[in-house]
Specification:
The complex is a heterodimer.
Chain A (H helix, E strand, L loop, with lengths): L19 H6 L4 H9 L2 H11 L11 H6 L10 E6 L8 H8 L1 H15 L3 E6 L4 H16 L15 E6 L9 H8 L23 E4 L1 H13 L1 H5 L2 E2 L11 E2 L1 E8 L5 E6 L4 H8 L9 E5 L8 E2 L11 H4 L9 E6 L4 H15 L5 H19 L4 H13 L11 H15 L1 H10 L18
Parallel strand pairs in A: 1-2, 1-4, 2-3, 7-11
Antiparallel strand pairs in A: 5-6, 7-8, 9-10, 9-11
Chain B lengths: L23 H10 L10 H12 L4 H10 L4 H10 L13 E6 L2 H4 L3 H12 L12 E6 L11 E3 L2 E3 L7 H11 L1
Parallel strand pairs in B: 1-2
Antiparallel strand pairs in B: 1-3, 3-4
Helix pairs in contact in B: 1-2, 2-3, 3-4
The chains are: A alpha/beta, B alpha+beta.
The structure holds flavin mononucleotide, iron/sulfur cluster and FE2/S2 (inorganic) cluster (FES).
Iron/sulfur cluster binds next to helix 14 and helix 16 of chain A.
Amino acid sequence: MAAFEPVLLRRLNRPECKTLTGYRADGGYRTLERALKEMSPDQVTTVVKDSGLRGRGGAGFPTGLKWTFLPKGHPGPIYLCVNCDESEPCTFNNRYLIECDPHQVLEGIILASYAIRATTAYFYVRYEYGSGTRTMQRAIDELYAAGMLGKNILGSEYSLDVVVHRGAAAYICGEETGLIESLEGKRAWPRIKPPFPAIEGAFRKPTIVNNPETLANVVNIVERGGEWFKSLGVPPDPKNPRDAGSFGSKLYCISGHVNKPGIVELPMGVTLRELLEVHGGGVWKGRKAKGAIPGGNSMGFCTEAEFDIPLDFNGPGKVGCLGLGTAAVTVFDETTSIVDVLHNLCRFFAHESCGQCTPCREGTAWMLKIVERIKRGQGRLEDLSILEEVADKIGIMPGTTICGLADGAGWPVKTAIRKFRDEFKTYLREGPGKGPSPGMRLQMAGGH
Amino acid sequence: MSHHHGSGQISPLAAHVPAGPLPADIREAIVSLLTRYPSKQAVTLPALHLTQDRLRCVPPWAVKEIADILDLSPAEVHDTLSFYGFFRPASDPLGKKRLWICRSLACALRGADQILDQTAHKLGVEVGGTTADGAITLELAECLGACEGAPACMVDDEHVHNIDQDGKLDRLVESLRKG
Ligand SMILES: Cc1cc2nc3c(=O)[nH]c(=O)nc-3n(C[C@H](O)[C@H](O)[C@H](O)COP(=O)(O)O)c2cc1C
Ligand code: SF4
Ligand code: FES
């Protein structure tokens, strides 16, 4: 098979394309120009819908379908919120997009805004992306100067403003309604849904929230057509009537104990093993892998024996993980204690719970305390069942919390215990220092 | 989402936090953002950023002034401010530079917890604290989105990758100390 040519990352090493002139010289904004001239907003939506594109922000919701949830004939204003909070640990694909090819993201933003008839697009970006934020702002300034943002874009009837809005280092601002509250100047407490943002979102108006990678895909789909998009990736599983397929390419992040941490764009469905061996250069120091998280912290763990799962929307679920998540893979080697890895994840969720729902606030704190106790060598066998019970009970899926952060906190705990039970038992019996000797064991503090 | 804010004692730097009013250019910058949003309250975060970037903290008098500009009660501005552990009180302002060291998984697998401990020791501060000369505030961070360069840190809002290699962190700390 011929090597896959990157699409989203094709300008990665062409810094000249970061400028409007460079991007246009490369054919950029021609798709937008054509869409504004030749297509109605609904036609753009239809192309995106028919392509099967699913959101890249973690939930995999079909993008075109989401756009059709907006109320028909709404007098406006309608908003687009671009979710560049990207705070899922081990995830950095959108940082590459905004730092290396800001105009591709912006062309996607304008196309999507046109399709949904938005008059303002808020680009919500985590504070930690200072460099990418400045790159985006420069690109936006260029567009205003060229008459490609603001009133009557490229001489069309369509007008749009794009506003950059910086976060303040809180993971929960990535949850779409947490983002909206944060944008509105309030604490980022996720809202109870319904109403979904498409009906009542930012400033109580219909709002679509999309991830930058999703929007970058929109450009290439409108340019090359849905059939092209569907020629990449994995079609729906005929045995699973609820599978909408995993079409297109994906930016996969690889980090942890690998020789070559980085990012690679591949058609969806590459196996975790291929990602590790071929693109990540294998496990470092000539060691073997013990396991990995397949899609950011929230998805749960895979054991090394499960590395042959395809990283499409369905793959991780087949081995008991929550889903593909952000497709950010972090591998840990055989010398690393699962107790230490789990402790790190529990600490993250306890730190980042917004505190609004008691099961999440208390559950994440207790899971951390118990794992900390195990880590210190003071755990008891029954701690494992207590952890499993808490992990099973917190989240939107069991129906006890407002947002998915709690589900994401539960999944690593239950998959760790179910898949590495023997290691936990040995650790409980023998205490720290007897099992694998990790590089992670020095600090015990919970952080506060 | 809150970050560690030192010991809760009043920092010597607190004495250097100016009393109001907000510098005119910051006030103007805040006002100029009002047209970008359909509600004044939406300018809260940008206003807090503008303020802290200059003053290294958000003092109560600035909260009041921001509330005035945005037609809010100071309690509403404070409610938002206090949600984000990011903003510092006048009793414990940031030093000249904020050094955040990431402790999330990709970095932890490459020694981040130890690096954070060692850096705190070396600077003679607790995590969250500021060096006596006011040059560096050390903070922990959850994933900075720079995991391919783990272990990673950030100086204010710029990433630094692979800080364990070739004495990179030591050199960075030295240069920050010199200011
Ligand atoms: C706790 C939590 C954090 C999230 N963080 C992000 C994020 O940083 N970026 C993102 O795009 N989506 C994030 N999401 C998913 C968003 O809620 C939303 O589904 C997504 O932005 C929609 O965009 P898409 O349809 O283009 O994927 C998060 C969800 C949860 C529950
Ligand atoms: S589930 Fe957790 S993070 Fe989400 S709203 Fe409830 S308390 Fe906040
Ligand atoms: S885990 Fe440290 S930058 Fe992502």
